[in-house]
Each structure stands twice: as structure tokens, then as C-alpha cells.
Amino acid sequence: MDTDSTPPPPRGMPRFSAECPSRPILDQIADKWSMMVLAVLEQPTRFNEIKRQLEGITQRVLTQTLRKLERNGMIRRRVLETSPLGVEYSLTPLGESFREPFTRLYDWTVEHSDEVLAAQHEYEARSLGR
What we know:
Elements lengths: L21 H8 L2 H9 L4 E2 H7 L5 H13 L3 E6 L5 E6 L1 H5 L1 H30 L2
């Protein structure tokens, strides 16, 4: 996706280039578990506490999600010198900068969830009637 003010391409032409760097980034930070992990990290949080707050996530998926977010610069992993060793995760400045757009997206989701659910039910009813 281009961020300059050029007009969109003519109809029939791709609007989003296959080489656009936003594609893999969006794929990596906008999936459901990444979004939920970022929401949970309001303060430095240990692995098991993150897992307790995300009902339904497996240890494997949480580990993969945290690694992906760390690789993308959204979170920081810190080993705690406790016995046994512990690990906590916190947002980086880049991750903090994502809080405002994420909050707007989350608020929109909550505000419009009834409408989306109604549209889904309506669609399913129409699909069954075919």
C-alpha cells in the first residue's frame, strides 16, 4: 500500500502491489492472537499471566505469537533472574505507538458487533434458502 497521495490505479489494475511491505507486516501484527496479546500488555507481564488472560490460546501458539511480535519490534522479552527463571514481556515504543489505532479498531468492533452478528445471521439464512 502506498502512503503518498497518488490517485488509486485505474479499475482492473491491482490496488495493492504484491511487493508492498505492508502485506507481511499486516499479516504478522493484525492476526487475532497478536492483537489480543498487544491488548494484554498494558504493563510488563509474565508468560503465564498472558496465557491466563487469553482463553483458548495454547502454549505453542502463544510462544509463536510472542516471538513474532518480538521479531517485529512490537514487544520486548526480558529474562527475570528469579528462581526458577521467569520471562516477562512488555511493549516497545513501536508497540506503544500501535495502541491508539488498535484501540480505535477494538472500540469499533465492540460498538458494531451486534450489527456484524446480525449481518452474519442474515447471510446464513439467505445461503440456506438457495
